[in-house]
Amino acid sequence: MKRLASRLNWFWRLLMTGLCFALFGIGGLLLSLVWFNLLLIAVRDKATRRRLARRSIAASFRLFLNTAKATGALDYRIHGVETLRHERGCLVVANHPTLIDYVLLASVMPETDCLVKSALLRNPFLGGVVKAADYLINSQADALLPTCEQRLQQGDTILIFPEGTRTRPGEAMTLQRGAANIAVRCGCDLRIVVIHCSEHLLDKHSRWYDVPPRKPMFTVEVRERVAIKQFFDAESQEPALAARQLNRHLLHQLTPGFAPF
Fold first, then answer.
1. Which residues share a beta bridge with 35?
2. Which residue, 21, 110, 140, 261, could crosslink 58 as a Cys pair with Cβ 3.0–4.6 Å?
3. Is residue 59 in some structural domain?
4. CA gap 56, 36 in Å, rounded
């Protein structure tokens, strides 16, 4: 009887996972085709339009997560919501174990910026979201640093996953140096965020239908704010060396299993 109940629970979660991702895709299309176009027509000021678009994205992500939680497809906890919500003028750097890490963080950061891959512009479900939110594109090398500096100075937060792609289960984490370079060259602090999923779900080696035997629990832990002055002094250090040192610190902080003092 217990085995039958467990099997039925798994089958229910498989159905609800499929339903939730169908709703996610439909929601992304509706935002892109309807709501963002209405904003484009009705709101002439670009900054206001961008702010409304980002808040709409956050609200949509909260709806998705609450639906997934209510149906039993998954559960999640975010420790330090208020800290994230009130961050200003810094980079938020996080590890990247699953497909929905951005969704988890953006759901509670309604005005955050994000550094994304250029490939997302061609995604039929997320391309319109990226454009409407005016996210930073990692392929725009010449304009990236000046734009980051401008947005950070005006109080924006920029969400970055320094691995560049999802973590490969069983392999050592490696970080690209983009986040560290931006922090050093723009003189901004960094907020560390560590994401953990209790089961293998939506990771680099699994598809949405690879539902685990137990309901997955996503945990988001907001950790220290790293002051850039601890790693870089413009009068005595080379930016490249400071970026390497900072990147090593980030790797240590973001590696799963690391417990801060």
1. none
2. 110
3. yes
4. 9
Q: Assess if residue 259 is contained within a domain.
A: no
pTM over 0.90: yes
Rounded to whole angstroms, the Cα distance separating 137 from 139 reads: 6
Run of H or E including 69: helix 46-70
Q: What are phi and psi of 13, to 5 degrees?
A: -65, -35
In the block, residue with structure tokens 């870089």: 232
Question: Which residue in 91, 80, 126 sits closest to 220, CA to CA?
Answer: 80
Quickly tell me which residue has 């137990």 as its tokens: 214
Give the domain range for residue 57. 2-254
Q: For residues 246 and 183, is the Cβ–Cβ distance under 8 A?
A: yes
Buried-exposed string 165-182: b where 16+ CB fall within 10 A, e elsewhere: ebbeeeeebebeebbbbb
Q: Are 191 and 92 in contact (CB under 8 A)?
A: yes
Between CA 84 and CA 21 the distance in angstroms is: 26
Residue 201 located in a structural domain? yes
Question: Is residue 26 assigned to a domain?
Answer: yes
* Domain total in the chain: 1
Handedness of CA 233, 88, 79, 171 (dihedral sign): negative
- Please state, in angstroms and rounded to a whole number, the distance separating the CA atoms of residues 192 and 94: 6
Encoded tokens for 37: 């176009």
Q: In which residue are the tokens 């961050």 written?
A: 87
CB 87 within 8 Å of CB 175: no
**Mean per-residue pLDDT pooled into runs of 10, the chain (261 residues):** 88 96 93 93 93 96 97 97 94 96 96 91 87 89 88 95 90 92 95 96 91 96 94 82 94 74 40
